[in-house]
Write a structure and sequence with these properties.
By secondary structure, the protein is of the alpha+beta class. It has eight helices and twelve strands. The strands form five sheets. It has a four-stranded mixed β-sheet with strand order 10-1-12-11, with helices on one face. The protein has a two-stranded antiparallel sheet with strand order 2-3.
């Protein structure tokens, strides 16, 4: 399977927030929510010296996205097409799913019931429930697949003033992201407790990577509680759907 991925070079990132602002403008993300963020880390002591860096974060489009199985919406069959080869594949999906040909984790907004399960499940806090809409919907980074379909690159990548973000197909051995991951050692932000295969990778000095992992790597298996406690019953799902019907006087 092809897998879109992004490498973020902390040696280049200056924390200007241009990526986050470009994302907000491109997708009309309401305040206080975000699809893309830049958090300041440090200055802090590390075993490798004093570190001052940033955490540019977004949806990781994980190999095993835990947000997908907690979606309670009934699955329907969808047809997917490989953008490179034209190969077609049919798959049963809920309202959130992982594209079999790009590896992007996406949301069918017209089928999302706004239950918030996927938001609570994500250990990276990369999803939000947009309650500014008449009908609340889950939202997050899509790797700008809509732009990619028209030959563009993600808005955050295009806007980065220092070229700190590199985007491409990790399954393509000739791509820059492949070389940065397999030859330069870009790292996934994972932990022993949470290791679900994020496809955002980070490069940087040892002290900065240490601080990034110390402060930002997730350790709580949030999705397990969602499955047990928060999954809506069929009655709850029906009531959520009824609330969307027009009200008549």
């Amino acid at each position: 399977m092809n897998q879109y991925a992004m490498v973020i070079d902390l040696n280049r990132c200056v924390g200007c927030h241009a990526c986050a602002l470009a994302c907000r403008a491109e997708w009309q993300v309401p305040v206080p929510y975000h699809r893309n963020w830049v958090d300041r880390l440090g200055p802090d002591k590390t075993p490798n010296g004093l570190s001052y860096t940033f955490w540019p974060g977004l949806c990781n489009h994980c190999d095993h996205p835990v947000c997908v199985p907690v979606c309670p919406v009934d699955k329907v069959e969808r047809e997917f097409k490989n953008p490179k080869t034209g190969e077609v594949k049919k798959m049963m999906i809920a309202a959130t799913y992982k594209d079999p040909f790009t590896g992007a984790t996406l949301i069918e907004k017209d089928r999302c019931i706004g239950c918030g399960n996927c938001v609570a499940a994500c250990p990276y806090g990369a999803r939000y429930l947009n309650d500014k809409l008449d009908e609340p919907k889950a939202d997050k980074c899509t790797f700008c697949v809509e732009r990619i379909a028209h030959g563009e690159i993600p808005a955050c990548v295009k806007t980065c003033i220092v070229n700190a973000r590199i985007f491409g197909d990790l399954s393509d051995k000739k791509s820059e992201v492949y070389k940065l991951v397999h030859e330069k050692g870009a790292k996934r932000l994972s932990s022993k407790e949470v290791n679900i295969g994020p496809n955002i990778y980070y490069l940087g000095k040892k002290k900065d990577i240490y601080l990034l992992f110390e402060k930002c790597a997730p350790h709580k298996r949030t999705w397990e509680n969602v499955k047990v406690m928060n999954e809506p019953s069929k009655r709850d799902t029906l009531l959520a759907a009824l609330k969307k019907l027009p009200k008549f006087i």
